[in-house]
Amino acid sequence: MRARITTSCRTAGSRYTRLNLLGWGILCPHARDLLWHGSTPLYPPEYPTADESKELHDWLVKQVDEALRHVASEPSVALREYWHELGIIKDGEVLCARSRADLIYLINLNGTTSIVYVEVSSTRLNPAKPWQALLRGIALYYEWGLPVGIVIVSPEKIMYKLLEDEDQTSIMRMLKRESEGFRPSPNLCSLCELRNYCPFKEA
What we know:
Blueprint: E1 5-6, E2 15-18, H1 19-27, H2 29-36, H3 50-71, E3 77-90, E4 93-109, E5 112-120, H4 129-144, E6 148-153, E7 158-162, H5 165-175, H6 186-191
């Protein structure tokens, strides 16, 4: 893949954010600008139902892990809550996003080692979730140098794809969109994790 994305975040002057927020930055150039200008906090937001959501999420992760191990034809190496970081290069600046993946499997198919990354959601998928999963998949590709399969599991649907070079191209194209004249939709703004920090949010 093209070297506009990197896992090296040790460049002087790099800004840091959370990868989930960068997923919203892909959808909305106003959210992207907030991240690049350092206008958002690094700590994760607190939600009133966080403990309940985490309990259900952890239960789903366990169920998915057991199901995948049951159907796997060969033993695989599983990594849970794997931390990684990803650097995005734009206009000579690097924005580094830290992330923790739910489930990662190193599998061997016909003598070829590949990565299967599984993202588990305990709720309906928000619009940024597929982009967040692609970003994690790209980070895994650069860290391991192996083909990456991405699976998103939620109560309503299962999505999957093999990571391709076009995915990175799409991400970079959307991150370069102009914010001038961009009008986010009320539906997008109501779900965005950056809503409380954005002066352009739609009611």
